[in-house]
Design brief:
By secondary structure, the protein is α/β, with parallel strands linked by helices. The chain has 15 helices and 12 strands. Strand 7 and strand 8 form a beta hairpin. The termini are far apart.
Length: 417
């Protein structure tokens, strides 16, 4: 895995690739390559032993031309200013490619949450919510879960905001528990869009998904749900990995049982006596479909030389470096870009926000049907652009569609002051 590739520079490179096709001025493109604002704040909390500890936290609001900023909050030791800037940019173009009326934002705290108690994490989360209070709101900026955060943290942020504002505003944040105003289908949304996009790609490429072999790198929420759903579609999951390592079985295995094993032991390693392999091995197996579902920069140019998958559906944000994209393009690997493949999370977050605003909640069946329509329509728009402009890869096509939509919204609003 490459660790020296700056994710923000990767984002800007992807925008430049699309800009070469677009009839959009260089001045507008330059504007669309940078966030509108970035909050950097220091949070100090009392540990359970009475000592104080300081944490650095960020919130990047990249672009709001198409609607309120939208994006997750992650807790991870590798969180950085450039990472959240990149992720907020990817979110801007993610909401645009699926054509939902939101902008892009992202936040994070530099922390390994495994080293802290639940009480300490609650104090930290509420401290961050207090700092975010002037920036967020259902018409301004709507955070959501990301790496190492979930319903618990979103519920804490919602409660903190509503308490300080003396109001009821469930739409201030998404990814909440159902009893706190969450949406049916939200937990599975990212994994579901990853496999819907993969299914559409297989159909476009005239490949049979039934019996196709699948490897999943990263067995967190998005990865294991993608594995479960692709298995239900008739594909065969032959490999999976997490931060501790991976497993491989050429005959396939039950992805739900593998998840149960991870819940019991902390890792997929050791499940059913399957062959133990490395994360790198998972990424380079000879499979029909590869789903990278961990962190950014998982595949660099050197590793891309060894990738043997025919199709890649990016459940993670930015799992391929720009140089890796070039290598895979030469190898005719069809890459479904992250801004489409994993857009199910933000799409169902949008549905949750709509339901919160209306105080009227949908069934899981309706949520999944609406999500299916959004992802299929977005894939069709990508393919149409890919073919019409005779582009070299699907990622550039996705950015052409997304950037044009953001640029159009900016032009229609006018520049002020």
């Amino acid at each position: 895995m490459s660790e020296d590739v700056n994710p923000f520079e990767s984002l800007q490179s992807q925008i430049d690739d699309a800009a070469a096709v677009l009839d959009v001025g260089d001045d507008v493109i330059e504007r669309l390559k940078h966030p509108e604002r970035v909050l950097e704040t220091n949070l100090t909390i009392e540990r359970d032993d009475g000592t104080l500890e300081r944490f650095t936290a960020f919130r990047s609001q990249f672009n709001g031309d198409r609607g309120p900023y939208k994006g997750g909050i992650r807790y991870h030791p590798q969180v950085s200013r450039d990472e959240v800037r990149a992720l907020s940019g990817w979110m801007t173009y993610k909401t645009a490619i699926v054509d939902i009326p939101l902008g892009g934002g992202k936040g994070g705290i530099i922390i390994d949450p495994d080293d802290y108690s639940e009480a300490e994490l609650e104090r930290l989360t509420r401290s961050f919510a207090k700092e975010l209070r002037p920036l967020i709101g259902e018409d301004r900026d709507i955070p959501a879960p990301d790496v190492n955060t979930g319903q618990r943290e979103m519920n804490w942020i919602k409660d903190t905001y509503e308490t300080l504002e003396n109001t009821t505003e469930p739409g201030v944040i998404t990814g909440k528990a159902l009893d706190s105003g969450g949406s049916e289908g939200r937990v599975e949304a990212t994994g579901r869009s990853t496999v819907i996009a993969a299914r559409e790609a297989f159909d476009y490429l005239d490949k049979d998904l039934e019996g196709a072999t699948v490897a999943v790198q990263g067995y967190g929420n998005a990865g294991w749900i993608a594995a479960k759903l692709i298995d239900e579609m008739g594909a065969t999951v032959v490999a999976a990995s997490d931060s501790s390592g991976g497993i491989y079985d050429p005959d396939g295995f039950d992805p739900v049982a593998a998840k149960d094993h991870k819940n019991e032991t902390g890792s997929v390693v050791g499940f059913g006596g399957r062959e133990e392999i490395t994360n790198e091995d998972v990424l380079t197996l000879d499979v029909d479909l590869l789903i990278p579902a961990a962190l950014e920069n998982a595949i660099d140019a050197d590793l891309a030389e060894d990738v043997k998958a025919d199709v890649i559906s990016e459940a993670a944000n930015g799992p391929l470096t720009p140089k890796a994209d070039e290598v895979l393009e030469e190898k005719d690997v069809f890459v479904i870009p992250d801004i489409l493949a994993n857009a199910g999370g933000v799409t169902v977050s949008y549905f949750e926000w709509v339901q919160n605003r209306q105080r009227f909640y949908w069934s899981e069946e309706r949520v999944n049907e609406e999500l299916e329509t959004v992802i299929v329509d977005a894939f069709d728009a990508l393919v149409d652009t890919y073919e019409r402009h005779d582009l070299e890869n699907p990622r550039t096509a996705a950015y052409v569609v997304a950037i044009q939509r953001v640029a159009d919204a900016f032009a229609e609003a006018g520049s002020w002051p």
